[in-house]
Amino acid sequence: MHKGESSKDCPLCMGSHWAEIGQTALAPIQKYWEQFNYKLATDFPHVPEYLTECRCSDCGLHFYQPSLIGSDHLYERSSTWDLYYNEYKWEFTEVLDWLSKRPLGKLLELGCGTGAFLVKAKRFCESAEGIEFNKRAVARCHELNLSVTDAPIENMAGTFDTIVAFQVFEHVALPGEIIAQCVTHLAPGGELIIAVPNHDGVLKGLNGNFLNLPPHHATHWEKSCFTFIAERHGLEIAHYKPEPISLELYQVYSQDQLRRLQTYTGLLGWASNKLLSLLHRAMLPYFFDAVRNDLHGHTQLAILRKPMHEVSL
Question: Among 1, 61, 96, 137, which one is least packed by beta carbons within 10 Å?
């Protein structure tokens, strides 16, 4: 365990009870981003050789030292990818189904991107607003006549019945502070809906998953993080669900596991590796059916509800 200084405290709970659990070489990360014309040295002049992964024993959050938080330039580059702002995310469907069974209310989405969710959510809400800092994405939202601002949540007036954040908190430096602001802006009985990558799923077992590392994802989240958030802010976990693993993600995961087995060299090794690959391809649907209930997919979704009345201590 380490007793850290304030700059080294956990970015979710601000606690100092954390342990170093691994190191990640930065050179492959740099090489990955260079193919998208983004250089880490532009935003981080003193890039270290390794990043140290830490896990907080108080809330379960994984974070990195030093903390490399992606700049606006990184997300401007990323937003040019066709699939970066996906309109058909699993969590969108789950939350829209949830909202369809609730009374109409005011909704705020943090990091709303190009407005894919807000367009759909307007059918189930009295009003739907968004916050987004990517100028290109904000312009697209305005073209769709969506109410979107680039002001931080602390500048928002009034309260909301629902605040949603899809794939946001793993990108920011201090998610705990933003979550506290969300709770402040949540009406009594309101719900804070959070979707983040699932570090209890297959993501943590993938090698070379550079999008799940700094400077893109600064933190990794376990289910225990939501238990901590609920306890700290007096919220109830109204719903929690991990995304089921898709055949596509399982194929990536199983191929990654297969590569770890293909360590043979020479002609015999080539033949053995080739045979393993052919068997893997032929048996993939059967393997998938066997493990799909035990492996979780990319995302986890938590819905945290604020009490109707403040509880006096």
Answer: 1
